[in-house]
Amino acid sequence: xQVTKAIFKCSSERISQVPKDNLRxxxxxxxxxxxxxxxxxxxxxxxxxxxVSATPGKTRLINHFCINNSWYLVDLPxxxxxxxxxxLRGSFSKIITDYIFKCEKMHFLFVLVDIRLEPQKxxxxxxxxxxxxxxxxxxxxxxxxxxxxxxxxxxxxxxAETLSEQWEELPPHFVSSSERGIGRDGILKFIEKCxxxx
Length: 198
Ligand code: GTP
Ligand code: MG
Prior knowledge:
By secondary structure, this protein is of the alpha/beta class.
């Protein structure tokens, strides 16, 4: 898929404010600072579209970016950031759970995990929650530029092994680097296929 147009549509504090049209959402979630906003900028080839920050907790609202006038990329607040109000470490804020469980626009969710880290408890909890609710999701390993090819493979194998305790197979997964543009084509191709399905 070519991204020919990417525009900021709106920021929502609650799901009653998300766009009321029939375009579908492809959303990005993960721990604060994992690289959600950077990945949105990389996929759209539009630096500065989503706000990036080295300080965790930058994205606090649900941000909709309209792509090619036909679907939305959605930047969600990070979880696992202790200082966000009303959000204790180890739990998921209402804005996140309302969006993923109640928002009918939500078509597919990418859970981003830092490729350098061993599987984190909070991500595993979140993935379990998705499984329990039957939410369609995939994994994106971020910041691949920080590891060698062999280290990346070891890291993904470690993830697969951890998830195999609960899942028969690893969900659709991608390796990315927003710094180097790694993973862009594969992720966009997957999204294209995903939007073809009803
Ligand atoms: P919140 O909005 O706070 O939840 O964070 P986020 O997940 O949107 O992360 P963001 O995109 O703001 O990036 C966090 C930090 O990681 C920034 O300093 C980015 O420059 C850096 N970063 C993001 N992606 C990559 C990547 O692929 N490679 C490297 N080396 N750094 C990255
Ligand atoms: Mg962000």
